[in-house]
Specification:
Blueprint lengths: L3 E7 L9 H13 L1 E11 L6 E6 L2 E9 H20 L10 H18 L8 E5 L6 H7 L5 E5 L7 H4 L5 H7 L5 E4 L2 H13 L4 E2 L4 E4 L2 E7 L6 H8 L2 H14 L3 E6 L8 H14 L7 E6 L8 H21 L7 E4 L5 H10 L2 E4 L8 H8 L8 E5 L12 E3 L4 H13 L2 H17 L2 H14 L23
Parallel strand pairs: 1-2, 1-5, 2-4, 5-6, 6-7, 7-10, 11-12, 11-14, 12-13, 14-15, 15-16
Antiparallel strand pairs: 3-4, 8-9, 9-10
Helix pairs in contact: 1-16, 2-3, 3-4, 8-12, 9-12, 10-11, 10-14
Length: 475
């Protein structure tokens, strides 16, 4: 079996507080051997390329420090002030600076130079996410002939938005250095295919192979999941049990609505608050029967747009509480703090409604964690944005347009009034999907497709398929 070389902006070996995708990637590395390579998160005065090796939870990691200019131009700049807003349909927030694009290229060149000696001839290389779009091309330029796959964890935007990026054609052309690109949904894959056809003059076959300039690139719909069994067990742990009791007692018999999101403008938090305020105004007879707990840990504090959304949300929460609160009740509890996954599992289990309303999201694993944490005999209701990638699978959720305060208000009313039998029926169908297409399914589906992709010329060297947990090939 070939080793797996995982490359991502940050390295987070599975275990402890690691999220579901980190757990899956770590599992893949333990199954096949290999290395997880990426930025350490640390700063250095001058880039040296020195690699820091560690063994974490049975996974060998290799990290490199970056200098301040790289962090500002590559990470804070092109990745998070240009690509992130653009790929989430926010061209009004995207900043197009030549220095950002130059820093992005330079950082990817440095990543390629540094990881190159770690790649052995039969290794499979798997690059993760928008931070490293051109990395495959950089590796090819350095003579790497291995199978290289790429997975995009965020949306791929429509062509008419994407062409606002000055470097877009060059950037998309570099993606043809990969053998396989994975997307969470058919919508994101189709948007990429549309760009290839109408901007590059390429073609897309019926089996989702893109061709351009004599190069072939296999495209794959591969929705990410969570470790459903592990998260269900977390929800039944002692920490989760105590958290559930404490949160329910603090609600004093009121129905708890919970939102858990990184503090980001793509998560629709302002629109969520406005929809909740609409519910309070339209249903005064019910307003003291509910409370919204919004957990929103800060992120990317060095980026101005993130500072602005924190300020706006604090003001909006204060405004709503000031207008609707009573001596014995505050409608919104707004918490800027991160919690462990076992604590969050208890919070999810304590809630009557999970409010997951991003304006645009590649997938959104919080929705799946919410489902996995529920009590089967008395589950809560998932309200989910139709613009999250998860909405393609989770059709039994109450789907809403997060831009409409009326729809959010109506959905809250529907969820609160939903009979137990319907709640159980919806939850059972959602849970079945969460369990079937879990994070290990995602891992095996992608790595099997990378093993099976057709190569040409000197690079043709078919490798065996990775077997699924059930013992048969995953195509």
């Amino acid at each position: 079996m070939s080793r797996l070389i995982v490359i991502s902006n940050r390295v987070s070996a599975g275990g402890g507080a690691a999220g579901g995708l980190a757990v899956a990637l770590s599992a893949g590395l333990r199954e096949n051997g290999g290395i997880w390579f990426g930025w350490s998160g640390e700063r250095i005065d001058e880039f040296t390329g020195q690699i820091n090796f560690r063994i974490e939870d049975g996974v060998r990691t290799a990290t490199v420090d970056l200098e301040d200019q790289d962090i500002e131009e590559y990470y804070n700049g092109f990745a998070n002030r240009t690509l992130w807003p653009l790929f989430h349909y926010r061209i009004d927030l995207a900043e197009y600076e030549r220095s950002f694009a130059g820093g992005y290229r330079r950082a990817n060149e440095r990543f390629a130079d540094t990881v190159l000696p770690l790649i052995e001839p039969e290794d499979h290389v798997w690059v993760q996410d928008y931070h490293m779009l051109p990395l495959g091309s950089e590796l090819r330029a350095r003579g790497v002939t291995n199978r290289i796959g790429f997975f995009l964890h965020i949306p791929w935007p429509p062509r008419r938005l994407l062409v606002t990026l000055p470097e877009v054609r060059e950037l998309v052309e570099t993606l043809f250095a990969y053998d396989l690109i994975g997307f969470h949904t058919r919508e994101w894959l189709d948007s990429f295919a549309d760009f290839v056809v109408h901007e590059l003059g390429g073609a897309i076959s019926d089996d989702d192979v893109a061709t351009w300039n004599g190069q072939r690139l296999k495209l794959l719909v591969c929705p990410a999941g969570i470790d459903a069994a592990e998260f269900k067990a977390l929800s039944e742990s002692e920490t989760a049990r105590r958290t559930c009791i404490r949160v329910r007692e603090s609600a004093v018999g009121r129905a708890l609505i919970v939102g858990v999101d990184r503090l980001d403008y793509s998560k629709g938090l302002e629109e969520r608050f406005q929809g909740y305020e609409r519910f309070l105004s339209e249903h005064p007879e019910e307003r003291k029967e509910v409370v919204l707990l919004q957990i929103a840990p800060p992120s990317r504090g060095a980026v101005e747009s993130y500072q602005q959304i924190r300020t706006r949300l604090e003001g909006l929460a204060g405004k709503i509480n000031g207008a609707h609160a009573a001596l014995d009740w505050v409608p919104i509890r707004y918490v800027n703090q991160a919690y462990g996954r076992d604590v969050l599992a208890g919070v999810y289990r304590a809630s009557r409604i999970g409010l997951v309303t991003p304006l645009r999201d590649g997938m959104n694993l919080v929705a799946k964690e919410y489902v996995a944490a529920q009590d089967p005999s008395d589950p809560g209701v998932l309200i989910l944005s139709r613009f999250a990638g998860a909405a393609e699978e989770m059709t039994e959720a109450v789907l809403v347009n997060p831009h409409s305060a009326e729809e959010i208000s109506d959905a809250i009313r529907t969820a609160l009034a939903m009979p137990l039998a319907e709640r159980i029926s919806r939850w059972e169908r959602l849970m079945e999907k969460v369990q079937q297409q879990d994070v290990m399914w995602w891992l095996h589906r992608f790595t099997a497709a990378l093993s099976a992709v057709e190569l040409h010329g000197e690079r043709a060297n078919p490798l065996p398929l990775i077997e699924s947990d059930e013992g048969h090939e995953v195509a």
